[in-house]
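Reminder to self: tokens first, then the designed residues, so the page reads top to bottom the way the pipeline ran.
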């Protein structure tokens, strides 16, 4: 199908929900994507952090094809070898305190179950979330997501949710009452613009939850699996959650999520109270096992830390060169460049130059590349970004800059 025909069909048939770049992708290889015209793009979007191993990784393809030849679907009411192997692989990554898992089809689904577990275990309805948080757009996940533009059209959402400033333990403590079941938090806020908390925030939050008998839910859907330079972001602060949500790159690009919980919390859920038709299907499970193996054996968290430090240094140099940039920040290969203008035109400009990026809010470029990128890819991205920002410097007037 020709590019123009693809644009026409998708624009006509799909519900208009995504901000979209005028690029029709046909295939991928490593850190690159190729459109239907054969043009190559350096992919620093990676499906919003999903393609941790890049595209068409040999281990992923092998696991996918071998499992597809045996069995594709197997309901959770039956046992399955691929699922059992995946669960064992997960258990070797996760803290020993988190011994019970539920496999979902997305990160938002994982958040839904985490909220249900918190209510079921504590018998309380209240949840504290953070200003700037993003946990998904299904009703429960949306209820603990703070963005007004996401929430307002769908009110009323779940009651008994309070939002407090991210990073302020005092405000969190003041919000806790007798109905508070849990606090949910991203270790690093992604949608808000890759916001890193004060160094003592998460340790103090852990202490507070323990002291008050409140569950700590960590949303590591974007930060987990090596993205920030540790297997899980909470390891940077030496803490552990009561309930953990993971997803995105866990199955190399296939739809997946997971909730990991302490046994006494998980065991409050009775048979039939939470199920899912596709939960732990063999195809995703086999690919998930292969993905974990590649992350561990390739030491990708350490690679993400090294490449992230290089990338952040280069972004800070860019920031110093361009007048309408505000701050470069990040951890590992979860990075952002905050600007003083709406970055959507810059995203389109970068795409025309062969670079695909994400964004956070209207003014922040976000970088979630595959963990396999190397120095050559970083340098190529910086060259393109320099040209894109130079054009923005010429286009943005001082009065329009934020």
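Designed residues (402 positions):
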């Amino acid at each position: 199908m020709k590019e123009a025909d693809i644009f026409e069909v998708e624009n006509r048939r799909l519900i208009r929900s995504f901000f979209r770049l005028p690029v029709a992708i046909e295939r991928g290889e490593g850190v690159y994507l190729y459109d239907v015209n054969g043009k190559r793009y350096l992919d620093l979007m990676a499906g919003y952090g999903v393609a941790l191993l890049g595209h068409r990784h040999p281990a992923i393809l092998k696991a996918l094809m071998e499992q597809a030849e045996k069995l594709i679907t197997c309901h959770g009411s039956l046992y399955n070898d691929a699922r059992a192997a995946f669960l064992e692989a997960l258990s070797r990554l996760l803290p020993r305190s988190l011994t019970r898992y539920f496999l979902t089809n997305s990160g938002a689904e994982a958040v839904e179950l985490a909220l249900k577990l918190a209510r079921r275990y504590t018998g309380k309805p209240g949840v504290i979330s953070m200003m700037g948080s993003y946990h998904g757009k299904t009703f429960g996940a949306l209820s603990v997501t703070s963005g007004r533009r996401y929430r307002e059209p769908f009110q009323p959402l779940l009651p008994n949710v309070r939002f407090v400033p991210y990073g302020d333990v005092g405000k969190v403590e003041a919000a806790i009452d007798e109905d508070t079941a849990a606090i949910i938090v991203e270790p690093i806020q992604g949608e808000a613009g890759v916001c890193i908390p004060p160094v003592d925030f998460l340790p103090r939050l852990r202490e507070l939850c323990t002291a008050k008998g409140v569950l700590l839910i960590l949303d590591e859907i974007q930060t987990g699996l090596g993205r920030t330079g540790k297997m899980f972001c909470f390891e940077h602060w030496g803490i552990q959650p009561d309930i953990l949500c993971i997803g995105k790159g866990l199955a190399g690009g296939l739809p997946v999520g997971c909730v990991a919980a302490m046994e006494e919390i998980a065991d409050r859920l009775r048979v039939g109270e939470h199920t899912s038709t596709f939960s732990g299907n063999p195809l995703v499970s086999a690919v998930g096992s292969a993905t974990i193996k590649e992350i561990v054996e390739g030491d990708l968290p350490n690679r993400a830390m090294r490449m992230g430090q290089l990338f952040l240094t280069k972004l800070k140099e860019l920031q110093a060169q361009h007048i309408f940039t505000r701050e470069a920040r990040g951890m590992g290969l979860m990075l952002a460049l905050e600007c003083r203008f709406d970055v959507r035109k810059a995203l389109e400009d970068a795409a025309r130059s062969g670079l695909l990026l994400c964004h956070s809010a209207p003014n922040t470029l976000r970088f979630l590349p595959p963990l396999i990128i190397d120095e050559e890819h970083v340098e190529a991205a910086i060259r393109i970004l320099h040209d894109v920002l130079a054009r923005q410097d010429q286009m943005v007037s001082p009065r329009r800059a934020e």
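The radius of gyration is 21 Å.
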